[in-house]
Design brief:
The complex is a heterodimer of chains A (188) and B (221). With 188 residues, chain A is mainly α. Helices cover 67% and strands 0% of the residues of chain A. Chain A starts with 12 loop residues before the first helix and ends with a helix. Chain B has 221 residues and is an all-alpha fold. Chain B is elongated and about 75 Å long. The relative contact order of chain B is 0.14. Chain B has one domain. Chain B contains eight helices and no strands. Classes of the chains: A mainly alpha (188), B mainly alpha (221). At the A-B interface, helix 2, helix 3, helix 4 and helix 7 of A face helix 1 and helix 8 of B.
C-alpha cells in the first residue's frame, strides 16, 4: 500500500468512525487506511512520553496489536480518539513497567553509542515548555499532551485517562500552574 | 497545525502493523450499548443475590415489616444499580466513567449504614463476634466468587485499568453478599450490620487493592 498523507477531512472523527466500522466488518482496505491515518498522531503521543523514536515505534506496533484485539469494543457514535488514546495510554504504561523491570537487570556498557536521531519537540510545544513539562508528574504531563498537543476535549481526555472530567480539570490546572511558575522563572 | 513538523512513522512499521491486522481479518460483533450492559450487570446482581439467599434461607427478610422491607430492599437495589453503572464501562476503553471509584466505595457504605440505623435502632453486644463471623464469611465469599466472575465477564471487552476494574468487581461481589445478608441475616442490630456486613465490603476492596499493589511492586523488583 502506498503511504499517503492524511488530509484534514480524512482526520475528521466521522470519516475515521466509518473506517473503523468497515474495519470491524472485516475489510482489510479500511484497516490499512486507518493505520496510515491514525499512526502519526499516536506516534507523536508516544514520542512525547518516551523521547526515543525506536521505543515509540515499538509502542506503535504494540498499540495496533491491541487495537486489533479490542476492535469489538468500539461502538459507533462514541468518540473514536478517546477510545484510541485510552488504548495508547495503556500500551505506554505496560511498556514502561516492562522496560523498568528489564533495565534493572541490565548491565550497562562503558560507552554508549550516540543516538542516531533525536525526535523533534512535540508539535505545539516550544523547547522551553517541553523541558518544564518533563519535570511534571506523569499524570499531569499526560493531561497537557492530550488536551493541548493532541487537541482532545476535556470529555475525551477524561474518557482516555479513565477518570472524571473534574479530575482532568484538576490535573490540567495544576500542570498549567506549574508551567506558569517555571516559565516565569526562566523569563520565557 | 504544521503538518510538516509531525513525526511520521517508518514505512516498515506501518506495513508490519497492517499485515498483523489484516491477516485472517474477520468481522466482529460490537459490544452492546451502555444501557444493555448496565441491565445485564443489574440482572446478574439481583439473580445471584436471590438464588444464594434462597439457598441459605431468607429468615431476615421475613422478620421485617412491609415498610422496612421496601427501605432495606430499595437501598440494596440502589447500591447494586450504582455498582452496575460503575462496573460495566470498565470493559470498554475510553468509555464514560459515570461514577468515580471513591464514590463507588463510599456512597453504598453510607446508604446501607444509614438504612441499618433506621431499621434496627437497638444494638446488643452479646456474642458480637461469634454471631458476626458467619456474616463476614458470607460477604467475603461472595466478594471473591462474584468479583472473579465479574472480572472474567468484563474481560470479554478490553480492560485498560486492571486495578480499578478488579476493585470495582470485588465491591460488586461484596454487595451481592450484602444483598444476600439483607434477605438472610436475622440479627436486628445496626452495629452488627455496620461491622460484619459492611466491614466485609471494605476488607474485600482493600484486599484487592493490596493485591495489585504487591503485584506492581513485584513487577518492579
Amino acid at each position: 500500500m502506498v503511504a499517503t498523507e492524511p488530509t484534514a477531512t480524512e482526520l475528521q472523527p466521522k470519516h475515521l468512525e466509518l473506517l473503523m466500522q468497515r474495519y470491524q466488518a472485516g475489510e482489510s482496505e479500511a484497516a490499512a487506511v486507518l493505520v496510515h491515518q491514525v499512526s502519526p498522531r499516536i506516534l507523536q503521543f508516544f514520542l512525547a512520553l518516551v523521547r526515543n523514536r525506536s521505543v515509540a515505534e515499538d509502542l506503535l506496533q504494540d498499540f495496533w496489536l491491541r487495537i486489533h484485539k479490542a476492535r469489538h469494543t468500539y461502538r459507533l457514535g462514541e468518540p473514536l480518539w478517546a477510545w484510541l488514546f485510552a488504548i495508547a495510554r495503556r500500551t505506554q504504561i505496560d511498556s514502561y513497567r516492562r522496560r523498568s523491570r528489564v533495565s534493572q537487570h541490565e548491565i550497562q556498557g562503558e560507552h554508549l553509542p550516540e543516538a542516531v536521531s533525536q525526535p523533534k519537540e512535540p508539535e505545539g510545544l516550544s523547547s522551553g515548555i517541553w523541558d518544564v513539562l518533563k519535570t511534571l508528574p506523569p499524570n499531569q504531563q499526560e493531561a497537557v499532551l492530550l488536551l493541548k498537543v493532541n487537541g482532545l476535549s476535556l470529555e475525551e481526555t477524561a474518557r482516555a485517562a479513565g477518570i472524571t472530567v473534574g479530575a482532568v480539570k484538576q490535573r490540567a490546572h495544576r500542570a498549567f500552574e506549574a508551567l506558569r511558575i517555571a516559565l516565569g522563572r526562566r523569563n520565557l | 497545525m504544521r503538518r510538516e513538523d509531525v513525526e511520521k512513522p517508518s514505512e516498515w512499521v506501518l506495513e508490519t502493523a497492517i499485515s498483523a491486522l489484516t491477516v485472517d481479518l474477520r468481522p466482529v460483533r460490537r459490544l452492546p450499548s451502555d444501557l444493555v450492559l448496565f441491565t445485564g450487570a443489574m440482572l446478574l446482581f439481583v439473580a445471584s443475590s436471590i438464588l444464594i439467599a434462597l439457598a441459605l434461607g431468607p429468615k431476615g427478610f421475613a422478620n421485617l415489616t412491609e415498610g422496612q422491607r421496601w427501605l432495606y430492599g430499595g437501598t440494596v437495589l440502589g447500591c447494586g444499580l450504582l455498582l452496575s453503572i460503575a462496573v460495566a464501562p470498565q470493559m470498554i476503553p475510553g468509555a464514560r466513567r459515570w461514577v468515580s471509584l471513591p464514590y463507588t466505595v463510599l456512597v453504598p457504605i453510607a446508604a446501607v449504614a444509614l438504612c441499618a440505623v433506621m431499621i434496627y435502632p437497638e444494638s446488643n453486644s452479646t456474642q458480637f463476634v461469634s454471631r458476626g463471623i458467619p456474616c463476614l464469611r458470607t460477604v467475603l465469599l461472595c466478594a471473591a466468587a462474584g468479583g472473579v466472575t465479574t472480572y472474567y465477564l468484563l474481560r470479554r471487552g478490553y480492560i485498560v485499568t486492571p486495578r480499578q476494574t478488579s476493585v470495582s468487581s470485588a465491591l460488586f461481589g461484596a454487595y451481592i453478599g450484602i444483598a444476600v445478608l439483607a434477605l438472610h441475616c436475622p440479627i436486628e442490630d445496626w452495629l452488627h450490620v455496620l461491622v460484619w456486613h459492611l466491614g466485609g465490603t471494605v476488607l474485600s476492596a482493600l484486599a484487592t487493592w493490596a493485591y495489585w499493589k504487591v503485584r506492581f511492586a513485584e513487577n518492579r523488583a
